[in-house]
Amino acid sequence: MLVDYHMHLENGPKNLDYLKKFVENAERRGISEIGISEHCYRFKEAKHLLDNPWTRERNVDSLSEYLDLLNEAKSLGWPVKIGIEIDYIPEAEEQIREFVSKYQWDYVFGSVHWLGEFGFDLKENLSLWQKYDIDKIWNEYFNTLLKAAQSGIFDSLPHPDLIKIYGFYPKEDLSEYLDYVFSEIKKTDVALEASTAGWRKPVGEMYPSLVILDLIRKHNISITLASDAHYPEDVGRDFERMIPILKKAGFNEFVRFENRKRIFEKL
Ligand SMILES: [Zn+2]
Ligand SMILES: [Zn+2]
């Protein structure tokens, strides 16, 4: 079986008709289960976890409606899992932990999109990259990713080299440092995500890169599978391209979740 565990309903109405389009596209692409992983900052109930001018404008949805919708889909027998994509902010770790414990999830993602004030993957912040030292930003990104893993809050960490999104690479050779980061991540037992979304971004490469895939494999870290679809038509997109790459890199299984319990599936 295949699953796609990363997608967002944010660009459409929160109702069964819209959700059904995601389920149908998954079926069409031979994907037997999907996980919805809405951005946490969308939810009013989570406003306190990340409150800046950019998220404030988008803090408009109701978490209880989201959970009700997904539970309704489940009760209809739809192959849908309940996830959430939380921005990992080191300073908010305790609040995030408390928030996660209040609701029933199938899985919880911890993503690094913000380094302090810098929402580095946002198109509107592209010009800000000039202000930063790229070597430092890369270090800070992977330090934060490691902290997210060590927090023990999350089941998987999405797009684990998102920092490459615009193709700004460090001058410094990071191979030793990255080997250390992923060996430490292994100790936390969190999974990492393989995602086709990078092919639809300026970098034009899947997340993570082949180099990092090799490190993940070398350290025997579990993976989750993702399209990061923001529209129904992107569900399962490019899986036929990604799966052979994963197999070639030596992966023969992936994980999915039920009630935060990890289930291994053959790739
Ligand atoms: Zn993300
Ligand atoms: Zn996402």
Short description:
The chain is of the alpha/beta class and 267 residues long.
Features:
267 residues, alpha/beta, TIM Barrel, four-stranded parallel sheet, three-stranded parallel sheet, 11 strands, 18% strand, globular, binds zinc ion
Would you give an account of this structure?
Helix 5 (134-151) runs parallel beside helix 6 (175-188). The mean pLDDT is 97. A hairpin with a 2-residue loop joins strand 10 (253-258) and strand 11. The strands form 4 sheets. The chain has a 4-stranded parallel beta sheet. It has a 3-stranded parallel beta sheet with strand order 7-8-9. A two-stranded antiparallel ribbon has the order 5-6. The protein is α/β, with parallel strands linked by helices and 267 residues long. It has one domain (3-266): TIM Barrel (Alpha-Beta Barrel). The protein contains 8 helices and 11 strands. It binds zinc ion (2 copies). Residues 6, 8, 85, 228 line the site of one zinc ion (ZN).
Topology:
Layout: E1 3-4, H1 16-28, E2 33-39, H2 53-56, H3 63-75, E3 80-87, H4 93-101, E4 107-111, E5 114-115, E6 118-119, H5 134-151, E7 156-157, H6 175-188, E8 191-195, H7 210-218, E9 223-226, H8 239-248, E10 253-258, E11 261-266
Parallel strand pairs: 1-2, 2-3, 3-4, 7-8, 8-9
Antiparallel strand pairs: 5-6, 10-11
- Given this structure, which CATH class is correct? Alpha Beta
Number of domains: 1
Examine the secondary-structure arrangement and name the CATH architecture.
Alpha-Beta Barrel
CATH topology: TIM Barrel
pLDDT averaged over residues = 97
Overall 3D shape: globular
Number of helices: 8
Radius of gyration: 17 Å
Structural class: alpha/beta
| Biggest sheet layout | 4 strands, parallel
> Could you list the spans in which at least 5 consecutive residues all have pLDDT below 50?
none
Number of strands: 11
So, the CATH homologous superfamily?
Answer: Metal-dependent hydrolases
Query: DSSP strand (E) fraction?
Result: 15-25%
Strand order of the largest sheet: 1-2-3-4
Order of helices and strands: EHEHHEHEEEHEHEHEHEE
CA(first)-CA(last) distance: 7 Å
The small-molecule ligands in this entry are: zinc ion
Helix content: 25-40%
